[in-house]
């Protein structure tokens, strides 16, 4: 456990003496000026931040992770309204490291001219660099932005320890290759990444400086073998777990939806064999048990190091996933199951066992990390808000949601763009604002009736479209976090 360099009473006395002497308040001893690395003695009272990400995990799969529930949910706050507003791998991670929506950081999809690592504007200008400049030790472990492996370098600006996986990313138990040249064969990658990140945190803790560590696990993302996508691979000891599990929405009207003729043509799918969805749900749950084990070991390692009480531990996913709802299997789709993600936070001052329903997005996390670190400045215009301010001094009632396209020149890389409110989910095709989805959760909680062409919702649609147009061009805290006021009612 780090020891504060000044006790609270002594700090107050010193500050008062300085104020009386020079007539100005003293600079905080724990927050250095931007761009100037501080000595460990000056920053040793600031908290560590550890972000642990799953890949493609649904919000309702949190129930399948006993260690996460025991160590984080019971000892922290669960954000039940958490969203990934751009629900696919690379854009979601770009939002995390920049605190910006895709129209501002440049990343709109996983690949193509508007996607992947190469689309990220100023790739070295991230939350890691801002924290590092302020005296934090920083590390990244596991999967990064899609396509990074083609640009792989031993170091990435902003990261003290750059331990990103560049080979075997979806191979699970066959091989893993890292930027430092390490190649691991025949070991389950989740535990390899967990062990490497835990050892890095131990080295950081011995330095006396606070640290920021990001751990990107690949489960429950599908595996890839010989160019073919398959179900995620479970460890041998978990292969018989959850033998009776059914997909989370099994039996609900949205699961294997009977009639999808009211959806846009590019969202209509044939029925998926239910047995395939059941097998996929069980494979995902078994792979998540290994992530659960890794989280348990990380929390226990922080406790052994004496750092747990001084550390914010954040568990989240990059996006949700459709498991048969609306006949869909996948992500990057304009449905609630894709936007909804798990988000749990444990740490100093975080309420234990609490649940928050206020919508929180991945875009908000960079601003939150900087605030936890004592008000570290960003070198980008942040579009998100710190968690502590959302719904209190800065209410917002409408959140931007977006779906990218990897090849459409006519729409500049966008496919669907829209908004979500407490009652409505709305998204329209980037090239045709009358083609899209409008779901009214108040009367249709399972989103089985698309109201986009319903005359009774004309005023509702026009208002949601107005909000969409304003937010898709937004930049910065004030513009991207608005309270538009009451919505018109359906006729």
Automatic annotation (TrEMBL):
Span of the signal peptide: 1-27
Q: What's the domain of life for this entry?
A: Bacteria
| The entry's keywords | Glycoprotein, Hydrolase, Signal, Transferase
Residues in a coiled coil are: none
Q: What InterPro entries does the record tag this protein with?
A: Alkaline_phosphatase_core_sf, Sulfatase_CS, Sulfatase_N
Specify whether Transport is a keyword of the entry: no
Q: Does the keyword Repeat apply?
A: no
Report the Pfam families cross-referenced here. Answer: Sulfatase (PF00884)
Domain annotation Sulfatase N-terminal: ranges: 47-374
Spell out the Gene3D superfamilies in the cross-references.
3.30.1120.10, Alkaline Phosphatase, subunit A
| UniProt GO molecular function | hydrolase activity; transferase activity
Family the UniProt entry places it in: Belongs to the sulfatase family.
User: What name goes with this protein?
Assistant: Sulfatase-like hydrolase/transferase
Q: What's the source species for this entry?
A: Nocardioides antri
């Amino acid at each position: 456990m780090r020891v504060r360099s000044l006790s609270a009473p002594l700090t107050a006395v010193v500050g008062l003496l300085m104020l009386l002497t020079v007539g100005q308040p003293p600079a905080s001893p724990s927050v250095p000026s931007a761009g100037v690395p501080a000595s460990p003695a000056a920053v040793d009272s600031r908290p560590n931040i550890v972000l642990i990400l799953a890949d493609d995990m649904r919000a309702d799969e949190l129930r399948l992770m006993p260690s996460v529930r025991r160590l984080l949910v019971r000892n922290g706050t669960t954000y039940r309204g958490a969203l990934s507003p751009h629900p696919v791998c690379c854009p979601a991670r770009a939002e995390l490291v920049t605190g910006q929506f895709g129209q501002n950081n440049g990343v709109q999809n996983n690949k193509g001219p508007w996607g992947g690592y190469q689309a990220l504007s100023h790739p070295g200008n991230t939350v890691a660099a801002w924290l590092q400049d302020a005296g934090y030790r920083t590390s990244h472990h596991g999967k990064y932005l899609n396509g990074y492996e083609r640009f792989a370098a031993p170091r990435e600006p902003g990261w003290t320890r750059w331990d990103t996986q560049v080979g075997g990313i979806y191979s699970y138990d066959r091989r893993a290759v890292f930027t430092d040249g390490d190649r691991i064969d025949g070991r389950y990658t989740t535990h390899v990444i967990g062990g490497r990140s835990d050892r890095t945190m131990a080295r950081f803790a011995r330095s006396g400086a606070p640290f920021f560590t990001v751990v990107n696990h690949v489960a429950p993302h599908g595996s890839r073998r010989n160019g073919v996508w398959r179900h995620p691979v479970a460890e041998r000891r978990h292969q018989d777990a959850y033998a009776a599990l059914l997909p989370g929405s099994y039996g609900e009207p949205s699961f294997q939806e009977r009639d999808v003729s009211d959806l846009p043509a590019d969202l209509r799918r044939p029925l998926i064999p239910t047995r395939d969805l059941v097998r996929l749900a069980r494979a995902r749950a078994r792979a998540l048990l290994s992530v659960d084990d890794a989280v348990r070991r990380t929390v226990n390692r922080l406790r052994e190091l004496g750092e747990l009480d001084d550390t914010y531990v954040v568990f989240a996913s990059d996006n949700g996933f459709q498991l048969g709802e609306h006949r869909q299997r996948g992500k990057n789709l304009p449905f609630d199951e894709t936007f909804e993600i798990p988000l749990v936070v444990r740490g100093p001052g975080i309420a234990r066992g609490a649940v928050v329903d206020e919508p929180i997005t991945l875009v908000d996390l960079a601003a939150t990390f900087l605030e936890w670190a004592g008000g570290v400045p960003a070198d980008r215009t942040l579009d998100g808000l710190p968690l502590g301010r959302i719904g209190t001094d800065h209410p917002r009632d409408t959140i931007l949601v977006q779906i990218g396209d990897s090849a459409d020149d006519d729409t500049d890389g966008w496919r669907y763009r829209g908004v979500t409110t407490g009652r409505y989910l709305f998204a329209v095709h980037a090239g045709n604002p009358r083609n899209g989805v409008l779901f009214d959760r108040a009367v249709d909680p399972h989103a089985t009736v698309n109201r986009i062409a319903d005359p009774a919702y004309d005023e509702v649609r026009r208002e949601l479209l107005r909000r969409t147009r304003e937010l898709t061009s937004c930049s910065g805290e004030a513009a991207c976090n608005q309270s538009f006021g009451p919505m018109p009612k359906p006729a």
